[in-house]
UniProtKB/TrEMBL annotation:
This is AF4/FMR2 family, member 1. Keywords: Nucleus, Phosphoprotein. Signal peptide: none annotated. One of its GO terms (biological process) is regulation of gene expression. GO terms for cellular component: super elongation complex.
Length: 227
């Protein structure tokens, strides 16, 4: 990574940064093996994704006219895609837990909303149990119990986390489809790579991803004479 920072050539710099990203992914794999909870691994995968995003920002590789740069873009996009799937797997159990809790919460709200108001509330003017009671003057709501939207803060936080976790899957599919479009323009290169290494898919392991990307990267460097 330090070598990349000293380089001025954008393509050469991008190549060096990708090497650093692959090493970072390997660190994450080792962490995940040591600790199945993989909280640390998630952070490393997230850092790897950010590094690859930075690589892609150095130059518009996907729009470049040179086929080698399009191939490089595919390798980067596939790395991002499979990393996002790995990040989702790290927090899948949390997403399932939150999904059940949110379903229960909103189902109960729906049932309450559909329930008819008690007749006594309409005839005597007695407040309905569903109607909020006026707060005494000067009273303060319990801290952090309800957000500005009227939704409990715990539900707001749970919803936010759930969206963040599940968005990894959507991002993974989106990047994979973008990469597939570019792959069609370099069918021979990727066909040979799949034959000699492995056929990469969205559910491929990170170890397969690193091996596949390294091999493709080496072939690409040989074609472009990049050190």
């Amino acid at each position: 990574k330090q070598k990349a920072e000293l380089m001025t050539d954008k393509v050469g710099k991008a190549f060096k940064y990708l090497e650093a990203a692959l090493s970072l992914i390997e660190c994450g794999i080792a962490m995940e093996t040591e600790s199945p909870a993989c909280k640390s691994a998630y952070s490393v995968y997230s850092e790897s994704v950010d590094l690859i995003k930075f690589i892609m920002s150095l130059k518009s590789f996907s729009d470049a006219s040179a086929p080698q740069e399009k191939i490089f873009a595919v390798l980067c996009m596939r790395c991002q895609s499979i990393l996002n799937m790995a990040m989702f797997r790290c927090k899948k159990d949390i997403a399932i837990k939150y999904s059940r809790a949110l379903n229960e919460h909103f189902s109960s709200l729906f049932k309450v909303a559909q329930a008819p108001s008690p007749c006594i509330a309409r005839t005597t003017g007695t407040p309905s149990p569903l109607s909020p009671m006026p707060s005494p003057v000067g009273s303060q709501p319990s801290a952090g119990s309800v957000g500005s939207s009227g939704m409990p803060v715990t539900i707001q936080n749970m919803t936010s986390s759930y969206v963040t976790i599940t968005s990894h899957v959507l991002t993974a599919f989106d990047l994979w489809e973008q990469a597939e479009i570019l792959t069609r323009k370099n069918k021979e290169f990727f066909a040979q790579l799949s034959t000699s290494v492995c056929a990469l898919a969205l559910n491929s392991s990170l170890m397969d991803l690193v091996h596949y990307t390294r091999q493709g990267f080496q072939r690409l460097k040989q074609a472009t004479k990049t050190p």
